[in-house]
Amino acid sequence: MEILIVDDSKVMREMIVACLRGVADLHFTHAASGLEAIERLSLGRFALVFLDLNMPDIGGFEVLEFVRGQDALRDVPIIVVTTRGDEGSRDRALATGATRFMTKPFEPTDILAEVRALLPALTSATA
Predict the structure, then answer these.
(1) What is the pLDDT of residue 23?
(2) Beta strands in the chain (DSSP E)
(3) What is d(CA 91, CA 23) in angstroms, rounded to the nearest whole number?
(4) CATH code for 2-117?
């Protein structure tokens, strides 16, 4: 299964991959900006997307709007992972189409638990 990780911080992208490294059959594609995310989403098929809200070009809210406006992408689970911990950002992200909302810093076990909840085929995988 292919997972898209969208964050302008390479360290954050690598941290998410590290949280999931032990899960069998997961592959990762990275995007460092909202524009790059939209390009990758337009060209590939992803089982899940991790999405930061704060990016230098197209922000996470706009990426959410794009994804949920596309028939082929409408059902792709999206986990927003952001430094924005306020209720307004959380409510807006969920209303715009995020499946889950997590704040940074996060616990590695929380990332793994969310992925397993959203991708039930992985429940028997080891981590």
Answers:
(1) 87
(2) 2-6, 27-31, 48-51, 78-82, 100-103
(3) 30
(4) 3.40.50.2300
